[in-house]
Amino acid sequence: MTYRDISSLCEMTRVLSYPRLISMENFRQPNFPLVAELMKWLVKQYDAQADIPQDIDGEQDRVIFIRTVAQIIATKAHMKLNTKKLYQADGYAVKEILKVITPLYKALRDSEEKELEDDEDIGQNYRYAMNDDISTLKNARILCSTITQKGANLHELLGKELDAREARQEVINRSMELSEVEEGIKEAARAAKRELEKHQKMIDNVQIDEQALDEKIQKRREEKDRHQRRLDMLRSVRPSFMNDFEKFEQELNDLYSNYVLKFRIASYLEKELEGHFKNQREKVQEVSRQYMQSINSHITEQEQQMLNRQLNDPNEDIGEHSDEEESEDTSENESDEEDLGQQKMNMKMENGKSFGAMTGDLSDDEQPQDEYDNEDDELVAVQRQQKKMGGSRKRQQQRMPYDDDENF
């Protein structure tokens, strides 16, 4: 099977006006209905009165159909087809179909070429129809095939005539004796008897083998019954460790249930505690932010007051002014420390009230108060740093009037 063969078949069927189109993909897989339809059409082209079986559903029906088609083609077209390849109904069947369809295609092409050449000389009334030309060419091809085949057979027989002549003459000259005929018949009878004995021994051997197989089957059945009874007995017996196994299994289920419950409770409590700590941190940050805002506003007011006093009394003594500044800074630091201590006491009291029973069950290592103490220490350090920065700014502002005074 080649691509060229399939394409040639498609082209020939189209030119010969086959009722349906044949694709290149029709013969990729076995397609017996298409092959059967195509062969019916081709047989009808050779012999319109041919009787072809119509049933191709069963395997035997298909075999009969292929044999009938092959016989008709051999009789009418004198062509031998390979029935096995036709029965395959795939690409290999294409070559066999091409043997049948190629003469029709060539005859049609020849007739068309001849008509084109003689178109000027022959009128429309004297043209033959396509069917007449095909029938004429079919008869001529049949005669040519018959002559060729007969001539080949005759040549082959004539080549064997020398040997056949001697054998024929020997047989003719030999006289037939009754004893030889009788001896031949007896020999044939003895050969038939030997063949009968041979077949009888084979039948006896088959019976012996059948008995042996029956015995083996019986033994296998007994073994199966014995194993089945043993299996039933093992299923009915309860193992000694089964009670302990069931008890431990129940305990394991209980422990797992308790573990799951405690794990869920612990997860929930951890989540709640984390949320509580977060809220407390937000509260402390809010309080510290408010406190820092108040401190900053207070420092700003004091700086403004000091600036106003300096503007009002620009000629005060420098030494006295610095002593007053130091005393004011000392008093401010003391007052700020007192305010800070009071603020820390208030925050501790609020934290003690907010925790309540939540911190009552915690251990010494888990007291959240240490976190707030550390935050208070950091807050104090920040406030002290800010106070120092505020004092330095105030001293700079106090020196500004004296820098501009010409008498100083």
Describe it.
This protein has 408 residues and is mainly alpha-helical. The longest helix has 71 residues, at 242-312. It has helices spanning 3-15, 32-46, 59-76, 83-88, 91-117, 130-159, 161-173, 178-236, 242-312, 318-355, 369-404. Helix 5 (91-117) crosses helix 6 and helix 10 (318-355) packs antiparallel against helix 11 (369-404). It has eleven helices and no strands. The protein has two domains: 3-160; 263-404, no CATH class. It starts with a helix and ends with a helix. 80% of the residues lie in helices and 0% in strands.
Task: List strands and helices in order, with pairings.
Elements: H1 3-15, H2 32-46, H3 59-76, H4 83-88, H5 91-117, H6 130-159, H7 161-173, H8 178-236, H9 242-312, H10 318-355, H11 369-404
Helix pairs in contact: 1-5, 2-3, 2-5, 5-6, 9-11, 10-11
Organism: Didymodactylos carnosus
Subcellular location: Cell projection, Cilium
Protein name: Clusterin-associated protein 1
Brief overview, please?
The chain is 80% helix and 0% strand. It has helices at 3-15, 32-46, 59-76, 83-88, 91-117, 130-159, 161-173, 178-236, 242-312, 318-355, 369-404.
Tally of structural domains: 2
Helices, by number, come to: 11
- For the secondary structure, the number of strands is 0
Report helical residue fraction. Answer: over 70%
- Characterize the largest beta sheet: strand count, sense, and whether it forms a barrel: none
* Morphology: elongated
Return the average pLDDT rounded to an integer: 76
Radius of gyration: 62 Å
Structural class: mainly alpha
What separation lies between the terminal Cα atoms? 125 Å
Order of helices and strands: HHHHHHHHHHH
Unreliably modeled segments: 316-324, 352-372, 396-408
- In terms of DSSP E residues, the strand content is under 5%
InterPro entries: Clusterin-associated_protein-1 (IPR019366)
Family: Belongs to the CLUAP1 family.
Biased composition (Acidic residues): 314-340, 362-379
Protein name: Clusterin-associated protein 1
